[in-house]
Amino acid sequence: AVALADSPVRVNQVGYLPDGPKRATVVSSSAQPLVWQLVDASGRTVASGATAPRGTDAASGDSTHLADFTSYKGVGKGFRLVVDGQSSPAFDIRAGLYSPLFSDSMSFFYQQRSGTPIEASLAGAAYARPAGHLGVAPNMGDTQVPCQAGVCDYSLDVRGGWYDAGDQGKYVVNGGISTWLLVNSYDRAARAGTAKALGDSTLRVPERGNRVPDVLDEARWELEFLLRMQVPDGRPYAGMAFHKIHDANWTGLPTRPELDAQPRELHRPSTAATLNLAATAAQCARVYAPFDRAFAARCLSAARTAWAAAKANPGVIAPDSDSTGGGAYGDGQLSDEFYWAAAELYATTGERTYRDAVTSSPWHTSPDAFTSFGFGWAETAALGRLTLATVPNRLPAPDVARLRASVVSAADGYLTTLSSQGYPATIPASAYVWGSNSQVANNALVMGVAHDLTRQRRYRDGAVEAMDYLLGRNALGTSYVTGYGTRYSHNQHHRFWAHQYDASLPNPPAGSLAGGPNSALQDPVAEERLPGCSPAACYVDDIGSYSTNEVAINWNAPLAWLAAFAAEHRHN
Ligand code: 9MR
């Protein structure tokens, strides 16, 4: 018998939806089809068939076969797929598989909250901790943060928000895309008529029972922080947003948030951060209006001010070199951020200024709004496109039709990429960059939107099948989500969830997505352990490998979006 971890039969280790695609990847150099058998928990063969040889997969270097058991309509727990005498790990076939993943992937955000205690009753005893960065010694705190030398001569209260990742920095660029994705997850479900599952008291958040959908409660925690990062009236660069706030020097692992003794500093405002604020605050004004008019109005006013400030200061670029104590999040190309912010402001207000900014942007017609690598914190044109293609607006009908067609054609491309490879990744072999799992998820989410627009099953199936990749049907036969699967990532890079370095601290909580394979090997552990790796195999579940194995808000956000999407289809 083959050890499960080494099984050549790669499946979604969490399982398959009864009405979803059910495929496995088999690593085999056989040129001939192989017999597969689907075996239930009692050992009975309930279906069988032949694999299709697929040749060598470029991303992983593996020779693969495809086993397709989609036509099996039974449900149950503890199935295995047996091929050539080798068994896959056990998996379920049942509806409702994705509901726990949705709530756990959202709890990740609660547990990344800064400036509030993490409660045992919500997170579990092992994950409880005192509030971080409220100025209680030894914290210098985020309640009165001074600027870096020469940037400003005052301090600002920028408490709250989510820690970005394994570090305790807070970055407006990256907070922006992450918040947008969570709010969009609710907004699209509301249009699809499925928002009940995202409603009040559906998540483990302190705001349960306030009559506001819990996803929006969670996203508001970050929105309040983003609003605090806006330069106040009467100050230089008023209306812009500070780019980021983090420790003066990188802290070691482990560092509990409440024990971080480093000084915190505001880094100078940037046009990119300002446009992230404009976009997310404009989206906030639209989506929160039914729940809290005053908050929505505050968001709209901040968004307008930020837009005007960005127009007045269009080229204040955060430098790539600013990476002491925190990530740089540098981005020299801001036409896509302008487009995204204009799109959100237009969808919310319908005003001519913003419409003109949308229609005069090269991104309004560019075929490159959706790339094979997928959108990301520095590539935000797709977010504007998705909004204008889905949120009712007054662009001329042919324009809206063209935008919708661009989403669907992008989804077709991702579907082709997924189905033409050995493993169901939505990215090509060349796209295994830092955070590649988020690129897989972001492209899958575009397929989800294409399903919303067309109701065509293949797009929903594509989005669900991409989950197979994240949950074990991949080159390493491992699930990249903690707590999900028979073998999963659990040593992600994090200063508090640092069990690998300090046994008194927990591993990452269930629902934490690892960054994933990164062929550039950008940390010492990856350099030492992964030389010569095939792109899709350049991953190590070690806390030191921050370039392959960190967690981050912009990676968990599309996971949560997809989990919500996959959870809502329960036809049988
Ligand atoms: O996700 C970011 C990735 O695109 C960059 O290549 C990388 C290096 O600049 O930084 C990543 O973001 C990290 C950030 O700089 C600091 N917090 C942790 C983030 C995830 O690793």
TrEMBL record:
Pfam families attached to this UniProt entry: CelD_N (PF02927), Glyco_hydro_9 (PF00759)
Catalytic activity: Endohydrolysis of (1->4)-beta-D-glucosidic linkages in cellulose, lichenin and cereal beta-D-glucans
EC category name: hydrolase
InterPro entries: 6-hairpin_glycosidase_sf, 6hp_glycosidase-like_sf, Cellulase_Ig-like, Glyco_hydro_9, Glyco_hydro_9_Asp/Glu_AS, Glyco_hydro_9_His_AS, Ig-like_fold, Ig_E-set
Keywords for the protein's UniProt record, in alphabetical order: Carbohydrate metabolism, Cellulose degradation, Glycosidase, Hydrolase, Polysaccharide degradation, Signal
The EC number(s) this enzyme carries: 3.2.1.4
PROSITE patterns: GH9_2, GH9_3
GO molecular-function terms, A-Z: hydrolase activity
Glycoside hydrolase family domain ranges (all copies): 98-562
Catalytic-site annotation from UniProt: H493, D541, E550
Cellulase Ig-like domain span: 6-87
Domain of life: Bacteria
Matching PANTHER family: ENDO-1,4-BETA-GLUCANASE (PTHR22298)
Family of this protein: Belongs to the glycosyl hydrolase 9 (cellulase E) family.
Name of this protein: Endoglucanase
Organism ancestry: Bacteria, Bacillati, Actinomycetota, Actinomycetes, Kitasatosporales
